[in-house]
Amino acid sequence: MRLDEAVWGLLHQALQLYRDNPRATGHLRHQLARLEQPLRVAIAGPWRAGKSTLLNALMGEDVAPVAGADGSDVFTWYEDGPQPRATAYSASHPPQELAMVRSATGMRVDLVGWRAGELRDIVVSWPTRALRQVTLIDTPAVGGPGEHGRSPVMDRVLRDADAVLYLTRDGRGTDLRVLESGRESVVGQAAPINVIMVLARADETGGGKIDALLTARQLARRQHRDPRVNALCVTVAACSGLIGLAGRVLGESEFTALAQLAAVPRPELEAHLLSADRFLRGELPVPLDNEVRAGLLDRLGLFGVRLATTLVRTGCDSRASLSAELIRRSGLADLRESVNRFFVDRREALKSRSALAAVESLLRAEPGPGTAELLGTVEQILAGAHAFQELRLLAALRDTRLGFDAELAAEARRLVGGDGVGLAARLGVEHDAGVQRLWEVAADAQWRWRDRAEDPLLRLAQRRGAQVVVRSCEGMLAELAEGGR
């Protein structure tokens, strides 16, 4: 049985079990509706981690934050819609449409009349392709684990979102404890499949030197190899949301100003880029008024101005070429690829995981006749669903203790969807390969990995890993037999 069918059946069994409990049945129907909705991706992290800036970069527009000081504890949801609108939700008032006003720092909404702590959610409809497949959630700052070892904000993030981009400065200490606190349930322990850790504000790594973004990427690779980090997320990425957003929205007037600065000999310009105060108030060798200087700092930060002028000086001679290079260097392109590969391409598995977590939580919170049997069903689905087996193998392949050599590990990762879930990506062939070519490569892989799965000289963990790969190959052959590509 397919994973989505098993989860759908489980939800209906739970509905029957709780048929006399209106609150529980409402919650379960909500979970059924979520299976048909876009993937929910929350952007979470501690205070000043750069959540709203990264959300803007992913959307490619200056939209967040929508809330002012009185909305600092609000979850703000961004979903696709025909026209911009914002709706406020609270526990004590009916939904209320809010006035939206664009400001220099994003989209602001009128929160007059709302008391602090009264507003729970703001849902923003915004017409953009970036929100066709996902709903992005801008969250309040995540504090450290409370007296019961849990972060209230992170509890809600894990409950309401299907996947999480967790922003952190260094991926250590409190941030790891917050993520570990979300693994207490059976579903949470199944595999670290719904979290990408993001080393945010990468432009500030190492004191904001010109090689800061490269240093941040190296740090991300080291963090990914840390067993404690590895157990909590599917990958670690480094990204400067500020530089990435600048690349996506850079205007011609901003490029012209940067080109003027780049025309100044580097030693002379560097003296004016030692601090923001010097850049704003010093006597620049080119005529840029204070408003333009302040705009460049707001758009790029001091590091970004240094980087952008260096790029213009070394060949980025148009707004388009500079924008593309800023996006590439920021890590935004790599992060978006990771989001697509690990989240969007596996949205059915992630949404099913959310539904399983919701059912498990309900069964444990309100036990009664039949709940033990349904908890067993949850565990059976987790253990038997091939989508989860693939994700668990991907997690294990990041740990060299599984025992596959580098070449075998790379092939296994590709076949179970680590490089993309399409047939061509899994099989490592050209994207326009014909059915016959796909069939031959899949059948050959199935034969070779079945030999490994049955090899008594291999360790049990290796044979079990090979069995998962064989099952993936069988699934591809079945898809091809049904006319898929």
Secondary structure blueprint with pairings:
Blueprint: H1 3-17, H2 22-34, E1 39-44, H3 51-59, E2 75-79, E3 85-90, E4 96-98, E5 100-103, E6 106-109, E7 119-125, E8 134-138, H4 152-160, E9 163-168, H5 174-180, H6 186-190, E10 195-199, H7 212-224, H8 227-230, E11 235-238, H9 241-249, H10 252-262, H11 266-270, H12 276-281, H13 290-313, H14 319-330, H15 332-344, H16 347-365, H17 371-384, H18 386-397, H19 406-415, H20 423-427, H21 435-453, H22 460-481
Parallel strand pairs: 1-8, 1-9, 2-7, 9-10, 10-11
Antiparallel strand pairs: 2-8, 3-4, 3-7, 5-6
Helix pairs in contact: 1-2, 1-16, 1-17, 2-16, 3-9, 9-13, 9-14, 10-13, 16-17, 18-22, 21-22
**Tally of individual domains:** 3
Proportion of helical residues: 40-55%
CATH architecture of the largest domain: 3-Layer(aba) Sandwich
User: What would you call the structural class?
Assistant: alpha/beta
List segments where confidence is low: pLDDT < 50 over at least 5 consecutive residues.
none
Shape: globular
What is the β-strand count?
11
Major β-sheet annotation: 9 strands, mixed
The average pLDDT score comes to 87
What would the CATH topology of the largest domain be?
Rossmann fold
CATH class of the largest domain: Alpha Beta
Q: State which percent range the strand residues make up.
A: 5-15%
Widest sheet: strand ordering: 4-3-7-2-8-1-9-10-11
Give the full name of the CATH homologous superfamily of the largest domain.
P-loop containing nucleotide triphosphate hydrolases
Distance between the termini: 21 Å
Work out the helix count.
22
Radius of gyration: 25 Å
